[in-house]
Amino acid sequence: MHLLSGGRLVMPAHIYFPDAARDETFELPVSCALFKHAQGNTLFDTGCHPDAAIDAEARWGVNAAYSPPIFSPEDAVTGQLHHAGLVASDIDLVICSHLHYDHCGCNAFFAHATILCQAREIAAARAANAVPQGYHANDWNVGLPIALIDGEHDVFGDGRLTLIPLPGHTPGSMGAHAVFDADGNFLLASDAVPVAATLHQGFVPKNTVDPDQFVESLATVARFERDDATILFGHDDAQWRSVRTGADFYS
Questions:
Q1: 145: exposed, middle or buried (C-beta count within 10 Å: 0-12, 13-18, 19+)?
Q2: Are 173 and 104 in contact (CB under 8 A)?
Q3: pLDDT, mean over the chain
Q4: How many CB atoms sit inside 10 A of residue 250's CB?
Q5: E strand or H helix at 110, and its extent?
């Protein structure tokens, strides 16, 4: 597993931290995970589109003011694959934790891949209020084949990478449980647990669609943590600076 940059944003801190001042901001990483498996190369999330680094308003519309980008085009995942010795055409499968613009922005670059997504998330992305909710068709509806799943899904059929429904942030949010021989097991929580404080203080972020489902998903993540899984948070800068990234991988 290679953890790769998918961009970097600034957001109001009070979205994730209840004690933050209204005018306080914080920087957050956008991460992607590349899995090399005998059955193919798989990306979990594709982060922000590189064009957002040049003209965020043109790419994201009203959402650009909510989460201004602070990255260069080469910091998008398309500029990071070389750390794993790959190019975009080497990717066979793209897993979307959910379909917000900072998680599926580079889907279109992986022309040989199939997109894997929860059916409920596709429905949310197609709803009449999708754009204000952070869904942009030019990110997720890019002409690639989409395989819909409903619930838990063993990607390779060997227990190495299992998708876990974690709704609440969005209707079809999901995480990925990855098992390695040397480095143990990880749960990639995406925005079901954006920062460590979400899990350890139980604070429901303000950008949550369904708070009740979110709390239930937090309980699911906590069970994985009790079972010795390392939880990889969706946007925790302190954790991002402490984990192996780029060419340095987990196996």
A1: exposed
A2: no
A3: 97
A4: 17
A5: none
CA distance 228 to 185: 7
Q: For residue 224, which phi and psi values (nearest 5 degrees)? A: -60, -40
Cβ count near 251 (within 10 Å):
9
DSSP bridge pairs for 231: 187
Closest CA to 98 of 204, 3, 214: 214
Its pTM surpasses 0.90: yes
Length of the chain: 251
pLDDT band at 241 (very low <50, low <70, confident <90, very high): very high
| Confidence band of 168 (pLDDT split at 50, 70, 90) | very high
Identify residue 99 by its one-letter amino acid code.
Answer: L
Rounded Cα distance, 234 and 48, in Å: 13
The H or E element spanning position 125 is: helix 119-125
158 contacts: CB under 8 Å, gap ≥ 6: none
Q: Candidates 3.40.350.10, 3.30.750.24, 3.60.15.10, 3.90.79.10; correct CATH number of 2-240?
A: 3.60.15.10
